[in-house]
Each structure stands twice: as C-alpha cells, then as structure tokens.
C-alpha cells in the first residue's frame, strides 16, 4: 500500500485526437492542441498522444507530426507518445522524428513505446508486411533507439541527425506481465494501459517492481498507470457525460469505430447485456463523478497501486465539458509535487 498523498503524485494526459460525431479530423486536432495549452496552465506534467490507424474516430495516426503541432503551442508541459508502436517503424526513422522534436523543444519530449499494432491485422500488414518479425525484435529495436539517441553513436556508420545526443527518455507501455518484464530488465519507466485492459494491472506492477534493474536512465522503478476520468459538478452529470465514453468503447467491442456520439439518457437503449458486460470490464479503472467522488476513488487507486504518476484519458463529447473535466481533476490533484527532472530519466 502507498502512503503518498495525491499532492505528491504527478498527473498527466493521454489524448487520441478523438473525432466526435459531426466533427472533422482537423477540428479534433485543433481541440487536442487547445487541451494541451489549457492543461499546461492546470499543472499537468505531460501531454501524450497515441498511435492508431484506420479508425474513423481517432486522428492521431501521424503521431510525431501532431506532437510537433502541440509542442509549438505550449511552453513547459512535456510532450510525448503514448505510444509509438515501434514494430510499425524503423528505429532510425523514429529516432530522427523524435530527435528532431527534442532538438526543437529540448527537455520536453518523451518517447513511449508499445509493440501492439494499434490497428486491425489487415491494416497492420499494410503498414509493414514483416511486422511480426519486428515484434520479436522489439527489445533489440529499443536498444537501437537508445544507441541512436546517444552521443556515443557519433562514430557509427548510421546516425540519427537530428537526434544524436538528445538522449530522449524512453518509456515502455503495456497491458500484460510481458511488458513488465521488459521494462524491468531494461530499467525503464513503465506505463500500464489500465484504462482499457485492466486484468493484469496488479500482477504486472508487482513483476516490474520485483524484477527492476537500475539503468543509466532510471535508478528506481517508476510506474504510471493510465485510467479514464470524467469529472463534472455532480455525479449525475458526470455519468451522463460518460455515456459517450461507453458508446465509444462499445465500438471497440463491436468493431464499429464510428466518431464518438453525444451522451444519451439511457445506455440500455444503446447496448445489450453482453456489450454492457464487456464494456464495463474494460472500463474497470474509470473514475466518473463529482470532484469528491473522483478524489475518493483516485486516492484508493493510488494507494492500491503505489502509482508514481497518474495518466488520464478523458473522453467527453463536448470540448468545453472535456476541458472542465480536466480542470476538476487537476483541482483534485491540487498541490502536487514538482515533476521528476529530465536528468532522472535520461541520465544526462
């Protein structure tokens, strides 16, 4: 059990540039940028975006491009990927992309890495026909990234320019004990996707902490679980707003990835029992309600997990209400300690 107070825990945002019903992809991207600007003022530590492909409701496929757009509009909040699906890419190209970001916005760029496709299998094959071979090479490709980012790579035949010497901090993302073993062995900070895959959260965190090996980047385990948050003035209002979130996750269950719909008064008019059970299982770690409700639930969660940092996804149909949800959560986390230094994660 953790003895940390909420004020001692950093809080951050995961964003997918979600396209809502009737909205354009450009509108979703502009809203993400606005959210990042507002979040910086609210004291959030990081603003991360996730790589997804071939989804009508998500506009974050060209993740590094969007991160540059967000970084340009902000001054201090850390900007990063949550994550880049590394088997989809050449490590050199990712080193160049994130090295360029780190050159333009020094001390502000994070690179979270996952091995899932971030899409369906047909699209995954279209992205990279040899993807399954690259999945097996995931640990080696991470080491290659570290080499490209290091100043010591200057004598190599293949160099990432810009990027060399930036030592962009890497994070491992996952939803199982497999990723926990990898993050521990490599001595990297660990992000768990409990916002949609809660089953192995506690087992994975135990593996990570028990097996952790210090590295040049990180001396002690550092855990950042991701959860869903919808906060409003009242529990009733938050539950109503969260019906958009539930409908969006229904799309995951049914395979119908349509733009996120507006709230409904009764979810029973939308889903059947099987869909309801599947969605509610995925959304186990979702904190929905007033500030008081969210504070009580997130306090219990951080006590149970010993989280060093909390990352939230807040999917709300109306942009103004979404901004408000993030503001209320920031107020819950009021008085937080300062963010860990870049040196702690980079060894620079």
TrEMBL record:
This is Luciferase-like monooxygenase. It holds the Pfam family Bac_luciferase. It comes from the Bacteria. NCBIfam families: oxido_grp_1 (TIGR03558). Signal peptide: none annotated. SUPFAM superfamilies: Bacterial luciferase-like (SSF51679). Residues 12-306 form the Luciferase-like domain. To bacterial alkanal monooxygenase alpha and beta chains. One of its GO terms (cellular component) is cytosol. One of its GO terms (molecular function) is oxidoreductase activity, acting on paired donors, with incorporation or reduction of molecular oxygen.
């Amino acid at each position: 059990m953790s003895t940390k107070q909420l004020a001692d825990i950093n809080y951050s945002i995961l964003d997918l540039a979600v396209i809502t019903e009737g909205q354009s992809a450009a509108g979703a991207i502009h809203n993400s940028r606005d959210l990042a600007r507002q979040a910086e003022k609210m004291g959030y530590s990081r603003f991360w975006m996730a790589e997804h492909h071939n989804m009508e409701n998500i506009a974050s496929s060209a993740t590094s491009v969007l991160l540059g757009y967000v970084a340009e509009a902000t001054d201090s909040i850390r900007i990063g990927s949550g994550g880049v699906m590394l088997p989809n890419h050449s490590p050199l190209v990712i080193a160049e992309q994130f090295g360029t970001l780190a050159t333009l916005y020094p001390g502000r760029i994070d690179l979270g890495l996952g091995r899932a496709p971030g899409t369906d299998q047909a699209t995954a094959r279209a992205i990279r026909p040899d993807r399954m071979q690259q999945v097996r090479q995931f640990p080696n490709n991470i080491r290659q990234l570290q080499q490209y980012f290091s100043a010591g790579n200057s004598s190599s035949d293949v160099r990432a320019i810009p990027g060399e010497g930036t030592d962009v901090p890497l994070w491992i993302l996952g939803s199982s004990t497999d990723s926990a073993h990898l993050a521990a062995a490599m001595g990297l900070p660990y992000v768990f996707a409990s916002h949609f895959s809660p089953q192995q959260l506690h087992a994975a965190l135990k593996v990570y902490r028990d097996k952790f090996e210090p590295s040049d980047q990180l001396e002690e385990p550092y855990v950042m679980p991701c959860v869903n948050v919808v906060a409003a003035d009242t529990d009733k209002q938050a539950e109503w707003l969260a019906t958009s979130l539930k409908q969006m996750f229904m799309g995951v269950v049914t395979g119908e990835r349509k733009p996120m719909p507006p709230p409904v008064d009764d979810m029973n008019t939308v889903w059947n029992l099987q869909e309801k059970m599947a969605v509610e299982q995925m959304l186990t770690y979702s904190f929905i309600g007033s500030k008081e409700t969210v504070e009580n639930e997130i306090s219990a969660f951080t006590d149970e997990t010993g989280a060093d940092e909390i990352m939230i996804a807040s999917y709300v149909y109306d942009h103004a209400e979404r901004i408000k949800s993030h503001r209320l959560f920031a107020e819950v986390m009021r008085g937080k300690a300062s963010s860990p230094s870049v040196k702690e994660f980079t060894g620079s």
